[in-house]
Amino acid sequence: MRLPYFSRTTGKKAVKATTAVFIVTAVTAVAATLLTSCGFEKKEKAVDVNLEPFRAPSDYVWEGSYIDSRDGLAVLTIEKEKNGGYSASIGVPSEDMSYIRTYEFTLNTADDGVGLSYKNGSLTTYYLPAADAADGSVTTQEGYQNGTGAIYYLEGSLYWIDDVDNAGENFAFAKSEGLEETAETTTAGAAGGN
What we know:
- The protein has 194 residues and is an alpha+beta fold.
- It has helices spanning 4-7, 12-37, 177-190; strands spanning 64-68, 75-80, 86-93, 99-109, 116-127, 139-154, 157-162, 173-175.
- It has 2 domains: 4-37, no CATH class; 56-190.
């Protein structure tokens, strides 16, 4: 471990200071291991957090299509299920569009009543063929199953917490009514119902 204060020091002082930090860190880790093995538990201090800013308005409609306001590439889709929950998918393309990561999960109201949570998340990566590839097939790679996380509301946008690989860290999804209309028009046109 290198601390900014010690990085400016040279000679024997730096070696002694770095050694001291290393010894204190090692002793702390050994002490924690010994206490745990003797039956002592680490107690977390309860923190009172105000969750009200993350509570969606009571009339908020979760289902719909959302686009990441950061770059407009990632898309979140939430659909209402018959059982009262929601099915959701998030498509995240790579910058060069060579693959798309798709996260899928079933959302239910979180235990604390704030947002929607999931326990059955999966990740599948779809590798897209190059435009000039002779074989135009898409290959897939399964990432994980049984991932956990949540979708929560804040100031008109949805945010994603992915407990497995923190994939949702930089996304802020804004609802896009136009995306749904485009998808419906495209589907109707493809079916010949224009």
